[in-house]
From TrEMBL:
This is Lipopolysaccharide export system protein LptA. Residues 1-20 form the signal peptide. NCBIfam families: outer_YhbN_LptA. The keyword Cell division does not apply.
Amino acid sequence: MRNLPLLALLAALAGGPAFAEKADRFKPLNVEADQPGRIDLLNQHVVFNGNVVVTKGTMTIRAGRIEVRETPEGYHSAVATGSPNKPATFRQKRDGVDEWIEGEAERLEYDGKTDTIRFVTNAAVRRLRGSTVADEIAGNVVSYDSIGEVFSVSGGAAATPTNPGGRVRAVLTPREGSAAAAEAAAAASQPAPPLKLAPSLGGGK
């Protein structure tokens, strides 16, 4: 399937009642860069180049070029541009747990009013428990609503040598603390049993 909305991944990826850091939405947006920026105060438009870092609470966006705009209502939006060799990256802590959402794509589009971010072209988004990857989504475009923690993903036309069909991909692990997670952990700690030959293959008489 080339175009697959995965809104049901809310339950799979959220793994519980925690949400993205609620206070992040109301924190100031800070921008740092290696090169001088262009600031248009009249149109509330700022352009930065060179290892640009945007922070807003626990949220961090890094890219080679980032444009920031402010709407008349005071909300910020940002477009971060990377490249195939050095994509733009995103990272944000989830509220109340030691978990992070992180991802990368050639282009990131952040909307401060709706607190959503779109990962465009060669997108990959992961949920980390500490430093361990718990879940991962990959596709041409991945959207993340950090308020409701809803993801959607589509394949699109972009194809790579490892994914010539432009298919979407999701890898999900059992919810932490669930019976399935405990069973998976127990199975992983056990050595693999030796293989046995069936009688027809000479394993019995």
